[in-house]
TrEMBL record:
It holds the Pfam family DUF6817. This is DUF6817 domain-containing protein. Residues 20-105 form the DUF6817 domain. It comes from the Bacteria.
Length: 204
């Protein structure tokens, strides 16, 4: 199921892609081709689900600071770099990018579905309780990212398919209807019958 996407400003989108090129994203190998190709596919997935422009821009930049599953960073997660990225994509989108990059997955994934669950920032070594919107944004971006990897890489699917099926099932209350339908279409029989209580760390 797809819905009418909320478009991002074409000029801004072109500027973001130009920045990613300048930072070397088109030369970094990644499942399915290059990191830049992956970033563009994730943004397209989110657009197909009707994500608002801020989340689409975050999807396009979600690996800028590296992630807990992909160590290569295009920018350092420090104040000057964050301010520069925020000037280009907006503060709201940059906050989503930072939150995605900073997530200590082992500590955060299992608690993410709970309203009082802590989110652990691996950069700062701190924890906080995200708002419902922050949880939904993180879950939607996580699923878009991982689904792209599952779709383009048989190796990723063979190694991580079942674990990601458990993760996605645990996140289901936070996901949009189009996102969950994409999960069902991609994983089908690899999804558990019941929500998982123990969730393994997924990939970038």
């Amino acid at each position: 199921m797809t819905v009418d996407p909320m478009p991002i400003d074409p000029e801004r989108g072109d500027e973001v892609v130009a920045l990613l090129h300048s930072l070397g994203a088109a030369e970094i190998e990644h499942p399915g081709g290059t990191l830049l190709a992956h970033l563009r596919r994730v943004r397209a997935i989110l657009a197909g689900w009707g994500a608002r422009p801020e989340l689409q821009l975050a999807g396009l930049c979600h690996a800028c600071y590296g992630t807990d599953g992909f160590a290569t960073a295009l920018l350092p997660p420090d104040a000057p770099a964050r301010a520069e990225l925020a000037r280009l994509i907006g503060a709201a989108a940059e906050e989503i990018v930072y939150r995605y990059a900073s997530c200590d997955r082992k500590a955060s994934y299992a608690t993410l579905p709970h309203a009082d669950g802590a989110f652990h920032d691996r950069f700062a070594g701190t924890a906080f309780v995200p708002s419902p919107q922050q949880r939904r944004d993180f879950a939607e971006l996580t699923v878009a990212n991982e689904l792209d990897l599952l779709q383009v890489s048989p190796e990723v699917r063979a190694r991580w398919g079942e674990a990601l099926g458990r993760l996605f099932t645990s996140l289901r209350p936070l996901l949009s209807s189009p996102a969950w339908q994409a999960v069902e279409q991609t994983l089908g029989g690899q999804l558990p019958a019941q929500p998982a209580h123990q969730v393994r760390q997924g990939r970038q």
